[in-house]
C-alpha cells in the first residue's frame, strides 16, 4: 500500500532556483524511508511539498490514493496525517511553553479539553519532557527543542512523519534515544520518512532509500541494493556505509559465512566464521586423534563468539606440548534477555528480580525508563544501542535485562526475535513482569 505518491513534481523558489525538478516516487505505508543526498539536493523542498506546506509548480501529490488539491479540507487532511519535523526546530517550536507547544496540534484538531490533557501529558512523559513543560521553548537546548518538535507532531497521531535531518542537532545519546522512539513509532505502524547525509544511518535504519541529486531522484531501492551500486554512490557524491565496507573486507578475506549482507554490529558478528585450526598447549599424555574439550572461550574472542564449548581434534603434536587442533563446536551458550516493564515498576521487587534471575547486565531503553532508573538509583550498564548491545552480551552468555515500557516492549521483542530467526541462535527472551 502506498501512502504518498508524487508524479512529475516540480518546484522553483521565487528567486528562480529550481529545487525539485520532476520527482516521481511512491512511498509505501508502514516503512522506514530515507532520502539521502548532499546539501542543496532538494530534500527539504520535497518534504515541504509532501505535506502541502509548499505548492508545486507542476505535478501531483497523492495521499492514500487521493490527490492533494490544495483546498482547506484537502490540506487539513494531509497535515493531520503527514506530520513534518523541520530541520531547524526554531521554525517549529514557538508557543510560550513546552506544554502549549505540544498541545498546539491536538487543540487545532478539535480534541476535547480532557483528551488534550491526557494526550499532551502522555506525550511529554514519553519524550522525557514532563519536567520542562512550563519552560519557554526558546530557553531549551537544541536537542530538547528537537524533542519538543517531534513530541508536538506525535501528539497528533499522524499516519506518517517526515523528519528533515532528525539527528542533526542531537548528541550521540540523544540521537540513539530518538532512533529508539522512531523504531517504536514505526513498530506501531507509523510510516517514517527522513532525510539525511549520514549513509551509515540510512543503511542500518531504512527499509528503502532514495538518492537525490540536484532536485532529482537518481536512484532508489533497498539499502543493500543502492549502497552496493558504486556508480550510483559516485553520482550522488556519497560514500559506502562503514558496516558495508567492514563486511566486504571480511568477505574478501574468506572469513564470512552466510549469504546476508549485515547491517548492524550483531549481524556482522554473526557472519564471522571462527577459525578452524588453532595452536594450543596440550597435556603431555595427549595423542594425535584425541578429542579435547577446550571449554568455554575466554577473552576478546569469547566476546564475539556465540559458542559455549569448543571441542578440538588433535591433528599434530609439536614439540613443547604444542599441538595443531581442529576445532569443533557444540552447544550454544547464549544467555537470556529479560524485559522488565517499567510501567509496573515496583522498587521492592526489582532487586529481588535482579538476584533471582542472576542478571549480569541491565540496559535501559526509552527516555521514560532512563529517568525512572535515575530517580530510583537503579544501576544501568547500557543506555545506548540497547538492543544490539544486549544481544551481543547475551551471545557471550550474559543474562541481560532491558528495562523499558509501553510500545518499546513489543518493539524490543520483535527486534530480538528477528535476530533469533535469522541467526538460528536460541536466545531466550521473555517479559519478566508483564501480562
Ligand atoms: N527559500 C529559498 N529560496 C530560494 N532558494 C532556496 C530556498 N530554500 C532552498 N533553496 C534552494 O533550493 C535548493 C534545494 O534546497 P533544499 O533545502 O531543498 O536542499 P536539501 O537537500 O534539503 O539541503 P540540506 O541537506 O542542506 O538541508 C538549493 O539550491 C537551495 O539553495
From TrEMBL:
- Asked if Hydrolase is a keyword of the record, the answer is no
Supply the InterPro entries for this chain. AAA+_ATPase, ABC_transporter-like_ATP-bd, ABC_transporter-like_CS, ABC_transpr_CbiO/EcfA_su, Co_trans_ATP-bd, ECF_ABC_transporter_ATP-bd, P-loop_NTPase
- Which Gene3D superfamilies does UniProt cross-reference here? P-loop containing nucleotide triphosphate hydrolases
What GO terms fall under cellular component here? ATP-binding cassette (ABC) transporter complex
Q: Decide whether keyword Ribonucleoprotein is in the record.
A: no
Q: Where in the cell is it found?
A: Cell membrane
UniProt GO MF annotations = ATP binding; ATP hydrolysis activity; ATPase-coupled transmembrane transporter activity
The UniProt keywords, alphabetically, are:
ATP-binding, Cell membrane, Membrane, Nucleotide-binding, Translocase, Transport
GO biological-process terms attached to the record: cobalt ion transport
Under the heading Pfam families, the entry gives: ABC_tran (PF00005)
Its record classes its membrane topology as: Peripheral membrane protein
**Domain ABC transporter, first and last residues per copy:** 4-239
Function, as annotated, reads: Probably part of an ABC transporter complex. Responsible for energy coupling to the transport system. Part of an ABC transporter complex. Responsible for energy coupling to the transport system.
Similarity section: Belongs to the ABC transporter superfamily.
Q: Which PANTHER family match?
A: ENERGY-COUPLING FACTOR TRANSPORTER ATP-BINDING PROTEIN ECFA1 (PTHR43553:SF24), HEAVY METAL TRANSPORTER (PTHR43553)
Under what name is this protein listed?
A: ABC transporter ATP-binding protein
The beginning of the lineage is: Archaea, Methanobacteriati, Methanobacteriota, Stenosarchaea group, Methanomicrobia
Amino acid at each position: 500500500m502506498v501512502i504518498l505518491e508524487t508524479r512529475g513534481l516540480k518546484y522553483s523558489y521565487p528567486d528562480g532556483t529550481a529545487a525539485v525538478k520532476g520527482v516521481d516516487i511512491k512511498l509505501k505505508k508502514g516503512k522506514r524511508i530515507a532520502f539521502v543526498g548532499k546539501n542543496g539536493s532538494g530534500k527539504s523542498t520535497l518534504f515541504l511539498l509532501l505535506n502541502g506546506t509548499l505548492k508545486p509548480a507542476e505535478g501531483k501529490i497523492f495521499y492514500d490514493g487521493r490527490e492533494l488539491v490544495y483546498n482547506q479540507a484537502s490540506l487539513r487532511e494531509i497535515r493531520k496525517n503527514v506530520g513534518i519535523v523541520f530541520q531547524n526546530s526554531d521554525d517549529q517550536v514557538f508557543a510560550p511553553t513546552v506544554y502549549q507547544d505540544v498541545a498546539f496540534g491536538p487543540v487545532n484538531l478539535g480534541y476535547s479539553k480532557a483528551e488534550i490533557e491526557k494526550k499532551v501529558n502522555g506525550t511529554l512523559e514519553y519524550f522525557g519532557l514532563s519536567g520542562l513543560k512550563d519552560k519557554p521553548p526558546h530557553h531549551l537546548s537544541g536537542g530538547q527543542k528537537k524533542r519538543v518538535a517531534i513530541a508536538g507532531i506525535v501528539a497528533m497521531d499522524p499516519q506518517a512523519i517526515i523528519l528533515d535531518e532528525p539527528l542533526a542537532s542531537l548528541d550521540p545519546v540523544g540521537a540513539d534515544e530518538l532512533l529508539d522512539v522512531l523504531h517504536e513509532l514505526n513498530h506501531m505502524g507509523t510510516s517514517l520518512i527522513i532525510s539525511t547525509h549520514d549513509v551509515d544511518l540510512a543503511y542500518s535504519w531504512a527499509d528503502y532509500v532514495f538518492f537525490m541529486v540536484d532536485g532529482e531522484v537518481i536512484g532508489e531501492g533497498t539499502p543493500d541494493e543502492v549502497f552496493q551500486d558504486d556508480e550510483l554512490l559516485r553520482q550522488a557524491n556519497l560514500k559506502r556505509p562503514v558496516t558495508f565496507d567492514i563486511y566486504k573486507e571480511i568477505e574478501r578475506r574468506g572469513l564470512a559465512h552466510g549469504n546476508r549482507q549485515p547491517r548492524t554490529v550483531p549481524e556482522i558478528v554473526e557472519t564471522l566464521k571462527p577459525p578452524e585450526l588453532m595452536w594450543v598447549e596440550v597435556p603431555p599424555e595427549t595423542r594425535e586423534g584425541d578429542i579435547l574439550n577446550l571449554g568455554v572461550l575466554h577473552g576478546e574472542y569469547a566476546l564475539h563468539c556465540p559458542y559455549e564449548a569448543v571441542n578440538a581434534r588433535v591433528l599434530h603434536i609439536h614439540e613443547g606440548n604444542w599441538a595443531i587442533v581442529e576445532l569443533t563446536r557444540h552447544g550454544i551458550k547464549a544467555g537470556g534477555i529479560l524485559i522488565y516493564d517499567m510501567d509496573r515498576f515496583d522498587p521492592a521487587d526489582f532487586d529481588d528480580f535482579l538476584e533471582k534471575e542472576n542478571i549480569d547486565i541491565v540496559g535501559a531503553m526509552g527516555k521514560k525508563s532512563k529517568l525512572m532508573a535515575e530517580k530510583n538509583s537503579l544501576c544501568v550498564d547500557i543506555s545506548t544501542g540497547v538492543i544490539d548491545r544486549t544481544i551481543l552480551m547475551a551471545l557471550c552468555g550474559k543474562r541481560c535485562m532491558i528495562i523499558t515500557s509501553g510500545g518499546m516492549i513489543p518493539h524490543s521483542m520483535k527486534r530480538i526475535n528477528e535476530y533469533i530467526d535469522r541467526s538460528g541462535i536460541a536466545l531466550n527472551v521473555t517479559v519478566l513482569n508483564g501480562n
